[in-house]
Amino acid sequence: MEKYVYGFGSGKSDGRADMKNLLGGKGANLAEMSNLGIPVPAGFTITTDVCTYYYQNDNTYPDELKDQVLAALKTTEEAMGAKFGDVENPLLISVRSGARQSMPGMMETVLNVGLNSKTIEALIKKTDNARFVYDAYRRLITMYADVVMEKAAGVDPEEGKGIRFQLEEIMEEMKTEKGYTNDSDLEVDDLKKLVQLFKSKIEETLGKKFPDDPYDQLWGGISAVFSSWNGKRAIAYRRIEGIPDEWGTAVNVQSMVYGNMGDSSATGVAFTRNPATGENLFYGEWLINAQGEDVVAGIRTPNPLNIKNKTEETKDSVSLEEAIPDAYTQLFEIRNKLESHYKDMQDVEFTIQEGRLWMLQTRTGKRNGPAAVKMAVDMADEGLIHIKTALSRVKPSQLDELLHDMLDPNEEKKSKELAKGLPAGPGGASGQIVLTADDAEAWKKDGKKVVLVRNETSPEDVHGMHAAEAILTATGGMTSHAALVARGWGKCCIVGCGALNIDLKKKEISIGDLTVKEGDWISLNGSSGRVYLGDVKTIKPNMKKNKEYSQLMEWADTYRRLGVRTNADSPADAQQAIEFGAEGIGLTRTEHMFFGDDRIVAMRKMILADNLEDREKALGELLPYQREDFYGILKAMKDKPVTIRTLDPPLHEFLPHEEDAQKIVAEQMGVSVDEIRQKVENLHEFNPMLGHRGCRLGVTYPEITRMQAQAIIEAACQLTKEGYKVYPEIMIPLIGTRAELAHQRKVVVEIAEKVIKDMGQKVNYLVGTMIEIPRAAITADQVAEEADFFSFGTNDLTQMAFGYSRDDAAKFLPEFYDKKILPEDPFQSIDREGVGQLVKMGVEKGRATKPDLKIGICGEHGGDPSSVEFCHQIGLDYVSCSPYRVPIARLAAAQAVLSEK
Amino acid sequence: MEKYVYGFGSGKSDGRADMKNLLGGKGANLAEMSNLGIPVPAGFTITTDVCTYYYQNDNTYPDELKDQVLAALKTTEEAMGAKFGDVENPLLISVRSGARQSMPGMMETVLNVGLNSKTIEALIKKTDNARFVYDAYRRLITMYADVVMEKAAGVDPEEGKGIRFQLEEIMEEMKTEKGYTNDSDLEVDDLKKLVQLFKSKIEETLGKKFPDDPYDQLWGGISAVFSSWNGKRAIAYRRIEGIPDEWGTAVNVQSMVYGNMGDSSATGVAFTRNPATGENLFYGEWLINAQGEDVVAGIRTPNPLNIKNKTEETKDSVSLEEAIPDAYTQLFEIRNKLESHYKDMQDVEFTIQEGRLWMLQTRTGKRNGPAAVKMAVDMADEGLIHIKTALSRVKPSQLDELLHDMLDPNEEKKSKELAKGLPAGPGGASGQIVLTADDAEAWKKDGKKVVLVRNETSPEDVHGMHAAEAILTATGGMTSHAALVARGWGKCCIVGCGALNIDLKKKEISIGDLTVKEGDWISLNGSSGRVYLGDVKTIKPNMKKNKEYSQLMEWADTYRRLGVRTNADSPADAQQAIEFGAEGIGLTRTEHMFFGDDRIVAMRKMILADNLEDREKALGELLPYQREDFYGILKAMKDKPVTIRTLDPPLHEFLPHEEDAQKIVAEQMGVSVDEIRQKVENLHEFNPMLGHRGCRLGVTYPEITRMQAQAIIEAACQLTKEGYKVYPEIMIPLIGTRAELAHQRKVVVEIAEKVIKDMGQKVNYLVGTMIEIPRAAITADQVAEEADFFSFGTNDLTQMAFGYSRDDAAKFLPEFYDKKILPEDPFQSIDREGVGQLVKMGVEKGRATKPDLKIGICGEHGGDPSSVEFCHQIGLDYVSCSPYRVPIARLAAAQAVLSEK
To answer: What is the ipTM of this complex?
Structure first.
């Protein structure tokens, strides 16, 4: 006979903590605590298998269930010394859901089951507290009518018009009539009358009587819980959290205990360590003479659990330690037992009924980033857990909280949310709205904090983006220009915030009916994508002084196999990245260097040149700038490898597209506006992403590649002369065929050898390629013949493998997630089945030609934990990501090793 | 000892026709003819190995060469009964190049080698024709100075300033002085004097004497030929024709024979069958008392070879058959011998020296398309060749000449070429220039023939494209909108003609310095991409009456395994394609159907709708139109399968982008211009090719897919009711993930089953997908689970695998071909190594899931012979192409079978 019911709380339990799939998290842990000898109100769990059966069999139960429930109830009665439905010493029970993964508030609960016209008298006699009992009865009736009877009647009233609302209305009427303010003003007689009124109303509205038989109440409650697994809220929640529908919920039936039976009764929640700081201190809150929901609901302000918990604000409150010292001592012992048993911080609920402590729940406690780091390292230091366990305890993304300013969560909670976009640059920031890059720069000079709000950004906006505290765009995805640039700087950024309507003329933004103006304050949570009105306070972390963080990173480095490099375009970025632990540069984008004041003029001359001679002259002007850039970066990275990508973006990006700007440029350069306009038109492309860029420019204008290679090798020779060891790696972008790479390699090697000979230095340089065009991955065996290294550019590879423009797809992709057509943003986390297979193919084919081929990744995926794991699995040598993601990648790389079988 | 020299013409030759790689085409065939007992002036061939040696060894020869040449020369002397350099009976020889593949005019030739101050007298005595001999001497000196001496001196004069020019100037001066008009007016004494003047000039200019030693002349000639293999012209030619540099040339040294030794001498060229019509008639031209070059150069008008060759214009000319009947009879016998030996039409050169016939060359003759078809079928019917050989004799592309109007080649030769673009739609056409689609339609209504010239075309231009005789665009590649539409209609079209500068305001086009205006006539050769000024006459083929064509196609069908379907968007296209032999429709693009007058209004209503209800209402208006379309196409195709693709292009394509047009639409629809403008802006994408289109629209707006599926199945049910058998195949475009296809499949199947039930008919329909996104190919095993069939959309697959926008890449791809980075346009012929591997992967993975999965291709590659071969090799079930390419695909599919080992 299959076992559907697992008892707990009466000696040895049937279940264990590792039976979460069958018993749900709550049930499994109740069984486990009970096995540890921790006092748990007796009860039993009906398994998730019953839930599955229930839905597969037209809302019926297995035949064996009834007998098993009755048997378990009998054991419970024995353990608690009371009897369900007994008119002398009645047992009251609760019926709750308990899924494998917590779904707080999404399913139904019925409390005080077992109270009826007969047992109520016995209970009054027993407790000598008629008001308490009638209040419990009133609650049972309300709850039961709502979650069991109304649903069973198939009634689906409008929001706020259901039976619960009607019953509460009756109670409010009575309170008004009597001149009461609070529910607690209701007296026994009032409650007695209410119970009658409630019962009549229920019969009138739902056509059925409130059941007086405790067993009817029990089965009704069980059905209600199972039914609620497929309630609208629960389904929606599962969609968001990715919980499979077929898991089902368990039902926990448990004896009621009461924390509101006088001043020797209490209730509270506690964490075995401080979940906000990670400190190894028992931390919690409690209320005397109260029920659990009072703590959670925030109706009364709870007191600190113990003396050490007291703060300046709560120093005069009475702690549980002081008020009920015996119970506290017992609780503290349980806390120690739970931690040493579960080897992790626990989040517990307890109730003290007339001096007797009952544990109602234990589960692994949620914690913020800094706390996660501290606890993991502390516990490892304490010998509680292994270093490997410590490493896997911290979600890599939690490190963001140690690296960036964050919005103060308390302030954030109270702020008005304006809109939601994609969380492109983590952290929090506030500032006054500006709508152009020039304004951002100007306002910043005037000492103001600004948030730059644009439809989208382009390289022309970079100075304003730099000046801004944060960047907010209406369009674009996780790898749009704004996202890439912001993430590179560790700057808070939200993109693809479709609700924004920016009116540049009126200098205002409308969001639905709301309008905010230039100069108004907004705040951004770049980790969640939420935009708030007003100036929300931020919290500053101090990563450098955090010794647990340093320790964790050190441990990560000893375990990981993958190298971690950074994407950096300036010596400052490079320096920042080294502090974060970068072992080299995986991507330097040279094009960002062309936007300086003098440089852009030379760049534009180069673009406007219509013959080789003029073009080479203009390139000659750019050469010293580029050499200086590369000198700085190579020097900053000292003896670490530096991968420098030759010019990548289409040339039109370097010319202004608006007439006014074109006029200014024309004057600067001494040409006609028509000439500029004509050039911009000539360079126009329908699909620039698939256009004349990357190595295609280098093939058409080899002189550009040659100038860049010359600048790199000249800088390298100069540094070598100065005694530095430098390892430049020249990377050709957008290669699709072996012949392209052969062409560009020849250009690079020719000039490099010439410079090396002329300068009389020995420099080891490599020439390799981005693999970002699907065809390059497919023909990687051929491409490898010309390459010293590969670096996967998974941004473009994702674009082309899916056929999604990263600048446009944000318009429809969210709907794809909603409809479960895509599990997540493939620009954020690598699509292992598709894009990942191309990468894998590229690795295998590349190494088939050159077994030692050095292979990395420099797309945004290099900083995404799941993608880092994938890169580890397929044998990459390193990942490269923006400086602020380097610690995340280091931890993720270590976890990738640990998650191997 | 290695053999470097192969003799011919004196008994059994050393070489054979199949030794072309070693002896070059000319030398191998001279040897072969000689072996057949055909009279060939004796001589020998120096092998291509010597050329290779020459370039690998610093322009020197193998040691053995000299002796072998002298030995061969001796044999030649014996055969011809004359002696090289002999003062009594001197032998004169020619030194010519002869590569594996003909490179006409690209390398050097020296004739009359062996004439010097001593042999000249003997020859005069022997021929009794001093003028003839001095003229030969004058020619030798000029030629030798030019091709041997000037090159050897390292002089590189400006074009038209070299030694040849200087010598010709001397001759012109003399002619002026003497009052002569023609070279032939020069008398013996004049020529004697000229020879002296030439020799002096040569010594003065080049610092060396003209060699008097015949052996110096011989070796100088041999060196000149080998050197010319790496001349600029030859290298450029090889680049264009794809001839490898390492092949090298052979050198043919051959006894001179002269057709200009009086009225019993003659020279001519002939084809064993008529190369213009394919008729089995000996065809050729000859000149009495002339040298070969006179026929080729067109200085004198040659006569018809025989009586049957005579035309109205040449009826009074004397044929060789009449003039020298013995020689003609011998020639005719040789013609028969050559055809029965080579089993193909031969192109021969002959000379008759004083009544004696000598064959100078035979090679497989070039022929046009109709002739190729006729010859192949005739020869098979005659039993000369096997049907398989007949099938491989016709290049599939030659069929174009039977299917389209072509420019008259004679007229074309004389016309002024304006510019060159990509040959997007084959055939020829002329018309008056119009610059807008509306004008094209209006002018056509006025009875004019027009050519529509645009920067690029869009669906809004389709009515004008239809009205035009031909289409010419400045931008775009082989799969641009203009190219696709034109090819679908079999219309002449040239795209990507970058030299055009269209000025819409002035209504004119400038091409370099030249300006042509609206209304001017131009002519297009859509097979070569050439644009001519003026009204060039066209030739109309009549494919239907061509019984050899029908026979060839019938044979092709018996051999091919691949099915051939067509891409057709209307019943008329479908009907046309059936006539061409299409076995079904592989692609119906439904979007073209939305541009009708009433339809576009409904379509725009649908796009402007901001809620489901309005959208469904607008779709309801489109439904009857769509049903009617599908009814027509399904009926036209009768019992053949019809693949219908659901909506593919981005919605913005259905809205006007120019303000004036927006105003009109706004009025039509009763909305504000702002609303239209706003919608167009909202729909704007940076890279529309990677944007919100294909199944992404169907996922966002399932109601569109539903309407289309409903229309298809309703039409199918109606036809079934009427007694037709129909096989609709509903194809979902742009699938990247299995989930997308599952989503769309569900939408289709739900409505289809409903319609089938409601209409009470049984209809077999399939639901499949385009594989055009790289990810779909990579995950084809998953996608196949939801697909009844695959159809590779290799246009988009090529775009995304290479990362080339087909609308933009034409700007830089030509340079890629020049630089040998790409062998050819991957949009025209499938890139087997890259894109082809994706297709192969898709086939293998798809069939791994469903072994019987029906797989086709519906990109433009479906009509490209090389791509058809590839499709055959990887096991596709069918190819689908535009109607006019169906015969090409049928033949290519048969050839693919025949080229298998």
So the answer is: 0.84
